[in-house]
């Protein structure tokens, strides 16, 4: 059992040590693969004889963040590779022609596009922007004419406040983020939109919005769609779809449809944030948003276990930011509609829409993960909705807790609080990282001083061999404490580790590979090793005094050491009572 414990601690130490370099390695590999794909495509453009077209790598195989995900369904009916080029009949098509046609969505037949239900996807939105980096001598025309590209007939082009280009079809009320300036692509989008609206004819009205997001995966093109219901603040599809197909098996405890209301509302607000064109937030959305921010601020000020997704200083700043736009609000036939349509350009305010939609998305998702409005609603950050494994009952845990001076139990409770129900609350996580970083910095300073003290003791004349071995043990423990502190500081100081989504993924990996109890042991080592180092130095100092000093000096120091031993024992008892009361 002890060998297994040591082996798992070694694996955890290697995982933490390789964490920053692993992130840098992944980013470098991703960049290298991107350059390789660009090089292969340039060779293919110069009539190179590749047997097959190189794969187009979009992103890693890791699942997207819980807040945004589009699920790519596997096609049950394989597509004939020859069908990728409609101008060539099956067996007579050359590999080069098939490869060239498969990467162009405008030349593919209707069966080559796989239309699937989807949700607003933040990962592909921010990951797919690429630039070939070519240099070109563009002539600037004379005069004052606009240099902006004109969209195809029936489409309107607009730029999101973040900078990406989006397109809107005025007749069909269709949004898309794919660049439709290529010949035939706009007509293909319109054709797919009409077909989807015909299938949902009994459910959609004339003002129903439709979003089509086209992505490439290998040699296939996927068109993910969803309809938008502004009255009920949710997304919908013309066919039934299961939760795991859209979001994956990541929502534990969701067994009723009523629990999905806030999840679909969070997706709705993501849609409003991604497509703010021709919108203006109503007065009600700012009133509701200010109410939620004010309540979260009061809850944060009066409770240490608040479920607020923001810290107190952030709430103060957000209350100053959330202000209704100037001018009259756009009216809607439905009072509950919070994002009204504003055809007048003077009433459009995409910046206010993005601000309100982003904050509303955060609050809606926070309600969903805490089972807001359900029988098992989580009202406190320290409440555990699911059965958790009690590590404190292990005999090995109790023995280690004693030898680690009861710090193991404290760090276990910290990890339980910050990762209750496998959910990380952002303000709590930031406080946890700050507290751990400060403690590790102090332990590093104390260990450095202790190491210098050990070296000074060894440099003193007349140190016997047994005392040297004791000081060597103290020095080794001090060095180990410094190394463990440096490794943990390197992990917690990484910019990505501050992000709750990244922290959730890392803690999940640690839980699967070695277990959270071993992470608590690692956090306990710097302080425990430092205390053991001080204890060994104390023993060496006592032996040096009582063996080589005069009898009078022994008596005086014996009385002093006895008093110090009593105080130290009392401190250990108080520490034990504190640890027991906090359990």
UniProtKB/TrEMBL annotation:
Secretion signal span: 1-18
Ranges that cross the membrane: 443-463, 469-493, 514-547, 553-579
Composition bias, Polar residues: 91-110
Keyword tags: Membrane, Signal, Transmembrane, Transmembrane helix
Basic and acidic residues composition-biased segments: 122-137
Region entry Disordered, spans: 51-143
Keyword Lipoprotein: no
Protein name: WW domain-containing protein
Lineage of the organism: Eukaryota, Fungi, Dikarya, Basidiomycota, Agaricomycotina
